[in-house]
């Protein structure tokens, strides 16, 4: 055999191996897809018909709510089983069962913080009716699991067992959502770390409005490693295996008098981590003769989180600080005894068995102080959370009970009655209905703090620092039909400080809400098209506010010709600071801003701590913006502005020129900025990128815009957070709505609907939603 023939045979053999491997992968992925046509016996009480539109959005027709939820459970598990397994495992504190022993620390942290225990309490406290509805949902989930001939590819690659669902799992998912949507404990830890480097007065710069944090309890800096590891293990920004189900959003409603059609208008876009599959699954339930539940659900939970029905529409934005940390003082003579008002009290021990992959288990003990469970023992830090303090009555109505009542509400009074039963997480809701009303309501319960504003850990030895009670949901702020003719919410402070109880001192910057108010107040009449356009508005409110100060403080510095040209571009751009994809000054501003932040704080904080600050973008932007705007909190800092600004501008322009060439006017924001949707496996295993991930697309926008293109400051211009759903609706007698999600309805990489909506999402387009059920393709029947 010649050498040439040998190489040809080897090449053919390699090609054959690759083809066989690809066919095997294709077969595995195909076999894990659920049945979405024909008939299937699942145990419903009467036949349920399910049709799908062109985007594979399901329209379910059933005779009862229970059967509708069975169908929803079947659809969730057919299309999103991996996503469901991930959030269930986290909610139950069983990530080590899914991934192995390396996730045991995350499970310990979740148990310390009381997430699995909350899920258990919610299940045991739920009403019989609620449990029956959850069991109906679980019936559909398990029917889908039994129907699939192969597990999802993610579970197969992990070698993980496909476990049937139980009703307790649904409540565990609810507990995880409540935990992640409420936390600011990572910000508290960050400020505690900052306190080791800065004076109390300097610390004020790192709060939303320069609040006086007060004196920090003394802790040696080296002792914070255990606490850091505990919090990092449950933080998706630090632990990529931790699912993220935290909500942040824009929402606004327009009254009939400001609407061109004469009907209320509703707009909502939920801001979360972008990825595949998308956080939300769209579903439309038609129940009986005229009831509807329509909107965007989280796989693992029955009903919809944000949505509408035949009468009302609602959307939630994240708000409210309901978690605090306390520094405890342990006795030097007796282990696990902690100082409380002059005497050492024994902590209460809670013993649990942590499950590990392969059937192993490991005992673990959690210690509870009067302020809450210890989440770190060295130093001793306890954790308070409003949902630890739910009464039996609250448990019976919490979460799912309130959510399903909300899903079925038909007017403002019924909407408020449902919200009155909601304990947490604390959220703001915008509301519109077919009766001509618009409204706003804060949902959830809040702590009455004895001291502080929840910005940093307090001394747990003093009862005066402990919570003094809870503000019930019935006393939360609300608003109906304001004279302005519109209501907007965008994670910023919307409740006045004189409300009596602090809602949160850790809010988003006001740029998005200010832009919404500017646009909505100026327009005499608005259309659905206007609402849709505003969702993609890339006006940079942060630049409009701080860039004039940056340019003014640059006076007196010696500038190069290149710096002078950049300043001229930025000055011209300020007349209309839109962060469009093709904008050179938008790129220069954002790059300069981050370079300035680094120049201001990295030398003071050091690389490790400054990296932590970068991962908390809100905290860093508060500091930079307040300093530039000469807020009182900046007085403790002696910034040499001409030097800082000229050096940081020089660094930015030098770096950009090295990457994009010397012609500033030829630069574009999307030369640097883009968005890519990642699947957990596709991100962890580069070889799986073309199967599980999307392509990377150039994109515009800014973290401060209404049309949010948010990135973490430590990975600039890589857009990772944005609208996980955009929806607009006209609340006419037959509601008209359209929406889009990034990615698609399916969680199966080979599905035509895995990422089919991404192009429309990038373009700002929305897909019409049928007002009526569509022809049935799948029928679920009684056994």
UniProtKB/TrEMBL annotation:
Q: Which GO terms describe its molecular function?
A: hydrolase activity, acting on carbon-nitrogen (but not peptide) bonds, in linear amides; metal ion binding
Catalytic site: 249 (nucleophile)
Which residues are listed for Ca(2+) binding in this entry?
Answer: 188, 321, 324
Q: A single GO BP annotation from the record?
A: antibiotic biosynthetic process
- Which key words are in the record? Calcium, Hydrolase, Metal-binding, Zymogen
Q: Does the keyword Calcium apply?
A: yes
The family database entries (InterPro entries) matched by this protein are listed as:
Ntn_hydrolases_N, Pen/GL7ACA/AHL_acylase, Penicillin_amidase_A-knob, Penicillin_amidase_dom1, Penicillin_amidase_N_B-knob, S45
PANTHER family noted in UniProt: ACYL-HOMOSERINE LACTONE ACYLASE QUIP, PEPTIDASE S45 PENICILLIN AMIDASE
Entry similarity comment: Belongs to the peptidase S45 family.
Its recorded name reads Penicillin acylase
User: What species does this protein belong to?
Assistant: Paraferrimonas sedimenticola
């Amino acid at each position: 055999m010649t050498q040439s023939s040998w190489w040809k045979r080897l090449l053919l053999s390699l090609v054959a191996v690759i083809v066989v491997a690809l066919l095997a992968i294709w077969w595995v992925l195909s076999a894990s897809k659920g049945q979405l046509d024909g008939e299937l016996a699942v145990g419903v009480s009467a036949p349920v018909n399910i049709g799908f539109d062109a985007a594979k959005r399901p329209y379910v027709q059933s005779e009862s709510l229970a059967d509708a939820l069975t169908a929803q459970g079947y659809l969730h598990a057919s299309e999103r089983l991996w996503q469901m397994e991930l959030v269930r495992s986290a909610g139950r504190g069983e990530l080590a069962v899914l991934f192995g022993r390396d996730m045991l620390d995350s499970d310990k942290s979740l148990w310390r913080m009381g997430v699995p225990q909350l899920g258990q309490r919610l299940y045991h406290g739920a009403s019989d009716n609620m449990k029956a509805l959850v069991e109906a949902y679980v019936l559909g989930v398990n029917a889908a699991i039994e129907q699939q001939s192969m597990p999802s590819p993610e579970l197969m690659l992990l070698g993980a067992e496909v476990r049937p669902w139980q009703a307790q799992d649904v409540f565990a998912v609810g507990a995880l959502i409540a935990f992640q949507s409420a936390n600011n404990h990572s910000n508290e830890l960050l400020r505690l770390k900052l306190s080791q480097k800065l004076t109390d007065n300097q610390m004020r710069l790192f709060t939303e409005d320069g609040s006086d944090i007060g004196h920090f309890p003394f802790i040696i800096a080296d002792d914070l490693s255990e606490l850091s590891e505990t919090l990092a293990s449950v933080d998706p920004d630090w632990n990529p295996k931790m699912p993220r189900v935290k909500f942040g959003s824009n929402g606004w409603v327009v009254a009939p008098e400001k609407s061109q059609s004469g009907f209320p208008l509703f707009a909502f876009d939920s801001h979360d981590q972008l990825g595949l599959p998308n956080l939300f699954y769209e579903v439309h339930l038609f129940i009986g003769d005229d009831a509807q539940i329509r909107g965007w659900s989280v796989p693992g939970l029955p009903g919809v989180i944000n949505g509408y029905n035949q009468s009302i529409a609602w959307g939630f934005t994240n708000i409210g600080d309901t978690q605090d940390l306390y520094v405890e003082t342990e006795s030097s003579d007796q282990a696990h005894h902690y100082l409380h008002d002059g005497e050492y009290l024994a902590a209460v021990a809670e013993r649990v068995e942590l499950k590990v992959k392969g059937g192993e288990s490991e005992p673990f003990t959690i210690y509870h102080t009067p302020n809450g469970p210890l989440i770190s023992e060295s130093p001793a830090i306890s954790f308070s959370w409003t949902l630890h303090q739910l009464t039996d009555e609250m448990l019976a109505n919490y979460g799912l009970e309130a959510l399903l009542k909300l899903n079925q509400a038909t007017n403002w009074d019924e909407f408020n009655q449902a919200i009155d039963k909601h304990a947490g997480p604390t959220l703001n809701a915008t509301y519109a209905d077919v009766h001509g009303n618009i409204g706003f309501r804060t949902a959830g319960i809040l702590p009455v703090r004895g001291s502080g504003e929840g910005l940093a850990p307090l001394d747990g030895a003093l009862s005066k620092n402990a919570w003094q009670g809870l503000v019930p949901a019935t006393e939360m702020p609300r608003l109906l039909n304001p004279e302005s003719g519109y209501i907007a919410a965008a994670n910023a402070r919307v409740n006045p400080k004189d409300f009596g109880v602090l809602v949160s001192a850790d809010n988003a910057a006001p740029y998005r809400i200010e832009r919404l108010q500017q646009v909505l107040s100026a327009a005499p009449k608005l259309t659905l098209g206007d609402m849709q356009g505003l969702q993609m508005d890339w006006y940079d409110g942060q630049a409009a506010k701080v860039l004039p100060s940056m340019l003014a403080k640059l006076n007196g510095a010696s500038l190069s010709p290149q710096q002078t040209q950049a300043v001229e571009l930025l000055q011209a751009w300020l007349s209309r600071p839109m962060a469009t994809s093709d904008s050179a000054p938008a790129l220069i501003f954002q790059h300069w801003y981050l370079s300035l932040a680094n120049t201001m704080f990295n030398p003071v904080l050091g690389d490790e701590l400054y990296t932590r600050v970068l991962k908390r973008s809100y905290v860093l932007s508060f500091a930079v913006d307040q300093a530039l705007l000469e807020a009182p909190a900046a007085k403790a800092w002696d910034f040499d502005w001409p030097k800082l600004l000229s050096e940081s501008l020089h660094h930015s322009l030098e770096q950009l020129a090295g990457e994009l060439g010397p012609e500033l006017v030829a630069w574009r924001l999307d030369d640097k900025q883009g968005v890519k949707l990642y699947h957990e496996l596709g991100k962890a295993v580069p070889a799986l990128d073309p199967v599980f991930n999307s392509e990377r697309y150039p994109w515009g926008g800014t973290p401060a815009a209404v049309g949010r293109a948010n990135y973490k400051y430590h990975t600039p211009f890589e857009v990772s957070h944005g609208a996980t759903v955009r929806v607009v609706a006209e609340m006419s007698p037959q509601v008209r709505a359209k929406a889009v999600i990034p990615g698609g309805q399916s969680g199966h990489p080979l599905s035509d609907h895995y990422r089919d909506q991404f192009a429309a999402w990038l373009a700002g387009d929305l897909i019409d939603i049928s007002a009526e059920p569509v022809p049935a393709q799948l029928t679920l029947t009684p056994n």
